[in-house]
Amino acid sequence: MNTSRRHTFIWALSALVVLAIAWALYAHWPAMAHKDRPLGMGGRAEPVAAVAVVPQDVPVYIDALGTVTPTQSVTVITQVDGILASVDFKEGQQVRKGQVIARIDDRALKAQLAQAKGVLAHDQAVLSNAQRDLARYRELIKAGSISQQTLDTQISTVAQQLGTVAADQGSVQNLEVQLSYCTITSPVDGIVGLRQVDPGNYVTTASTSAIAVITQMKPATVVFAVPEDYLGAINQARAAGAVSVLAYDRNKQNLLGSGQLLALDNQVDTSTGTIKVKAQFNDAEHVLFPNQFVNARLKAQTLDQVPVVPTRAIQHGSQGDFVFVVAGSKASLRNVKSGPSVGDVTAILDASVKPGEQVITEGADKLDNGSAIKVVAQ
């Protein structure tokens, strides 16, 4: 029994030794094969594409999501009670300041105005008679025909009648103003929205329903918020001159308009750490609509003649960004400090690459520092 167990143990030990030798040969074989390879991954010169580094002016933009706001937005409501007689605009129509957009039945107010004018004419006649009596009393007092009390009473009568006439004139003016409210005109140049009240409805000053909403979109404005960290850069740009702002669509593909920075808010929003910025667009009234979301790009500065490389040439590693530079027949790895991008190129902010050098744009994923390369496309 002991002999059988001993033979089994020997066989098991032998099998383990064989497996260990086989594993060691398997693990050691790639290293031996790699040791015999020449420089360059794969044992041959890797074909790559390269592009020359060039100097270029690179604008530095601050991007933010903005909202289009009209220059003015006016909610037109009635200032008198009455029947809406007519609506004199088409929905979405461009209207001018002073243009009639609606009328309210004014017959009742016209009747009240006529009555007020009649009262005014009556009181003016009474005043005129009292003034003539006062003139006669002033002559009679000199002859001693009337007493001083009679003269004083007539002076007071004229003053009272003057007050009555002034009140009548105020009533007439008030009714004339009320009558003018029956013809509703546009207070601004702009685009009128959808009709909200139809003719024939009784409208009152207490009603919350507007007859129309008119928005002035020339010039259009865009409001967006930027982090407070950019305040210094924005103020420096403003001190240097006009600051340009671009408005793109939601996908950042189509340029909707070019404008200028108009104003900064007077305080930072402490809950978000941002400050509101307003930009003005003079010639974008037909592409920018109120409450539309746009991508705003504020030009903070311009980097003058800095080296730029294609963005696809920049690789990202644990030690930061790097590029491969063509050094003869080999690839040289250079750590770079990437800056802002414009189009399909990115600015390099340090002296790691120089204009005229070639950076590899295709095939870099197969390279290492010192890999043999062959430039097949430029």
From TrEMBL:
GO terms for cellular component: efflux pump complex. Residues 73-215 form the Multidrug resistance protein MdtA-like barrel-sandwich hybrid domain. Pfam families: Beta-barrel_RND, BSH_RND, HH_MFP_RND, YknX_C. It is a lipid-anchor. Residues 112-181 form the Multidrug resistance protein MdtA-like alpha-helical hairpin domain. Keywords: Cell inner membrane, Cell membrane, Coiled coil, Membrane. It comes from the Bacteria. Gene3D superfamilies: 2.40.30.170, 2.40.420.20, 2.40.50.100, Helix hairpin bin. GO terms for molecular function: efflux transmembrane transporter activity. Residues 219-301 form the Multidrug resistance protein MdtA-like beta-barrel domain. Residues 308-375 form the YknX-like C-terminal permuted SH3-like domain. Belongs to the membrane fusion protein (MFP) (TC 8.A.1) family. This is Efflux RND transporter periplasmic adaptor subunit. It comes from Pseudomonas helleri.
